[in-house]
Specification:
This protein has 334 residues and is α/β, with parallel strands linked by helices. The chain folds into 2 domains: 80 residues, no CATH class; 193 residues, no CATH class. The protein has 12 helices and 8 strands. The longest helix is centred in the last third of the chain and has 21 residues.
């Protein structure tokens, strides 16, 4: 029997059992159902048009240097690549689809060929997300795997060859809007904690809090988040400590946020810690990952890393546009 004064054993983050009865699961009510329903319909609307500014900027401006002249602007390349992602097309099919759209619109504009699309697609690799400013950000961090295009999995199953068949996508999602604010594509060997500084570098504006799972637990992550805005109050960091976590040497004189988490779990348990810190919001980043794989796809279409990074940047921007069109506002009722 455990004494009331004896510290409880640190608990891991709660995960509901898959066979848990449905009557005990949380239920939500969508408050803006009419607007959300109309927005979902607009997502499937095939009405396409090009405004006068897009038509005027379809061809790239002439260069003053003696190097080769580009025929298509980045706007034209981006349009074709976005259509490719939306309709899950290959490069040649995207070229033909865009040609048919321009023909139906009565526009006599040249269409980038598949070779040009492949070569120019890598230019979007370093593009940052275009966001609507709304104040300090509450970031949710997580990662997922994306399969690579090709025969790697078949060769592995048929001949037992060990080949890299997937890459790792690291995301930072805004908890308030659900939009992707930063993304990094790495090899599958890269750790989650090592990509935190890269993600934070892409985030513009002040950060109010950072929430992630136990894979990000460690002093280097806390230091990277604190160094993100040294002249402002440090963000609130909500990361469950490991079972073997211990207090730091200065916990009695100058406790860190991690020390506070460890003490709270030792005194009140993991359930109380999750409730006090609002750790349940982490499910929103898993929702964003599921949204990406459902709408953009669970595999990468590009072949090279630079093109794959450009594909991720355009896919993230596309998802942000979609969520601005249709986003549910729900409240928990049970």
């Amino acid at each position: 029997m455990v004494s009331p004064d004896q510290p409880c054993r640190p608990l891991m983050p709660f995960r509901p059992h898959p066979n848990r009865p449905k009557r005990f699961r949380a239920r939500y009510h969508i408050r803006n159902w009419r607007e959300y329903d109309a927005g979902l319909k607009r997502r499937g609307d095939l009405t396409l048009w090009l405004d006068a500014a897009a038509i005027a900027e379809w061809q790239a401006p002439r260069r003053t240097t003696p190097v080769g002249h580009a025929l298509y602007s980045d706007l034209a390349i981006e349009l074709v690549l976005i259509l490719r992602l939306v309709f899950h097309l290959g490069l040649r099919q995207a070229e033909g689809f865009t040609s048919s759209v321009l023909r139906l619109l009565g526009l006599d504009l040249p269409v980038p060929d598949h070779t040009t699309l492949s070569r120019r697609g890598r230019r979007f690799a370093n593009r940052r997300a275009r966001l609507v400013p709304h104040g300090p950000s509450h970031l949710l961090l997580d990662s997922t795997g994306l399969k690579l295009f090709g025969t790697g999995e078949w060769d592995n199953q048929k001949h037992g060859r060990a080949r890299r068949s997937w890459r790792k996508l690291h995301l930072a999602v805004d908890a308030e809007t659900g939009e992707i604010v930063a993304s990094v594509l790495t090899s599958h060997e890269a750790g989650d904690a090592g990509q935190v500084p890269v993600l934070l570098e892409q985030v513009e504006g002040e950060i109010a809090s950072v929430l992630a799972d136990g894979a990000y637990d460690g002093e280097p992550v806390y230091q990277a988040i604190a160094m993100r805005q040294p002249n402002k109050p440090p963000p609130a960091i909500i990361i469950p400590p490991r079972r073997s976590a211990i207090l730091s040497a200065q916990a009695d004189t100058d406790p860190s946020q991690r020390d506070e988490h460890i003490r709270l779990i030792q005194k009140q348990g993991g359930s109380a810690w999750r409730k006090v810190t609002g750790y349940g919001r982490r499910s929103l980043v898993e929702t964003a990952i599921g949204r990406y794989k459902a709408l953009i796809g669970p595999r990468l279409r590009a072949r090279t890393l630079a093109n794959q990074q450009g594909e991720i940047a355009l896919g993230s921007e596309l998802l942000n546009r979609m969520i601005r069109v249709a986003k549910p506002v729900s409240i928990r009722i049970s």
